[in-house]
Amino acid sequence: MSVKKAIIPAAGLGTRFLPATKSMPKEMLPIIDTPVIQYVVEEAINSGIEDLIIITGRGKKAIEDYFDDSPELEMHLANKKNTEMLNLVRDVSSLVDIHYIRQKEPNGLGDAILRAKKHIGNEPFAVLLGDDIIMNGKPCTAQLIDQFEKYGRSTIAVEEVPYDKLSSYGIIKGKPVADSLYVLEDIVEKPAPEKAPSNIGAIGRYVFTPEIFDCIKEAGPGVGNEIQLTDGIRVLSKTQKVYAYEFKGKRFDTGDKLGYIKATIDFALENKDLKDDVLEYLGKVLSSEDTPFRKMLFEGMKQKDALTKIESETFEVEN
């Protein structure tokens, strides 16, 4: 059965971006001039998804408004004969038919996905988290769907995670079965680095068989006393194979401040109207000794050199 439905959970509070997200959904934070969630919606569409469910919550109406028609704005742009911008606005509202389901209170990713059970029915479906933007010629979700169609089992996207970030991910233990593909043996939600089963973590893209719903319910509350999707995946893996696929592409975690800045810079450098000016500005920042950035960079380099020297001297003493 082909994958034509997808869920985008977008009910989180976005506390890492307060105070901005006090009145603005984190999914609507712009990368240059395009909200993060539009990149996620476009990935779903480009992966063959025809039926899209966005899980929202209190204070998320801006997402619905963004993907809705805007007659007043369209009329204003038409009167101004701004055809290019008018077409852009109309394109946004005609991307795909979107259904909205309210999660009454933030109770974990697993709980958000359960909200869509009636709409999904007994069909396979994809899940795309709104925090992750993944750049690649072939969308990450399409890569997972290819694996699902080949093996007929739930498939999650994974990548190598830095040691100091292991406690922020669901970390897998997997048995390699093909190039970039593992059979899941275990998955642990946000483990302490020294207890992590590997350095390979699940990121915000999944394709599931419908059995995942019952497994999420069976797992019950987990870390933070919330309904964790990771726990549901673990239960599912006990009854049927679950695959983990190291996707091709560059991922930006826009739910993290540094990840958001990286995404903004990279997308600016991909923009033909901005690239040259951004490169010129970055060159000036890096070459000027008077900028705070240059001073911080210089201080950071001195500290790094000092640490390297200490480590080297320690090694010599021990040996």
Task: Characterise the protein shown here.
The protein has helices spanning 36-46, 61-66, 71-79, 83-93, 109-114, 117-120, 140-151, 212-219, 229-239, 257-270, 275-287, 292-318; strands at residues 5-9, 30-31, 34-35, 51-56, 98-102, 125-128, 132-135, 155-160, 170-178, 181-189, 200-208, 243-246, 250-253. It is of the alpha/beta class. It has 2 domains: 5-255, Alpha-Beta Complex (Spore Coat Polysaccharide Biosynthesis Protein SpsA, Chain A); 275-318. The strands form 3 sheets. The chain has a 5-stranded mixed barrel with strand order 8-11-9-10-12. Strands 2-3 form a two-stranded antiparallel sheet. Strand 2 and strand 3 form a beta hairpin.
Beta-strand content: 15-25%
Q: Give the overall silhouette.
A: globular
Kindly identify the CATH topology of the largest domain. Answer: Spore Coat Polysaccharide Biosynthesis Protein SpsA, Chain A
Q: Please, what is the average pLDDT?
A: 83
Major sheet description: 5 strands, mixed, barrel
CATH class of the largest domain: Alpha Beta
What number of domains? 2
Short description:
With 319 residues, this protein is α/β, with parallel strands linked by helices.
SSE arrangement:
Layout: E1 5-9, E2 30-31, E3 34-35, H1 36-46, E4 51-56, H2 61-66, H3 71-79, H4 83-93, E5 98-102, H5 109-114, H6 117-120, E6 125-128, E7 132-135, H7 140-151, E8 155-160, E9 170-178, E10 181-189, E11 200-208, H8 212-219, H9 229-239, E12 243-246, E13 250-253, H10 257-270, H11 275-287, H12 292-318
Parallel strand pairs: 1-4, 1-6, 4-5, 8-12
Antiparallel strand pairs: 2-3, 6-11, 7-13, 8-11, 9-10, 9-11, 10-12
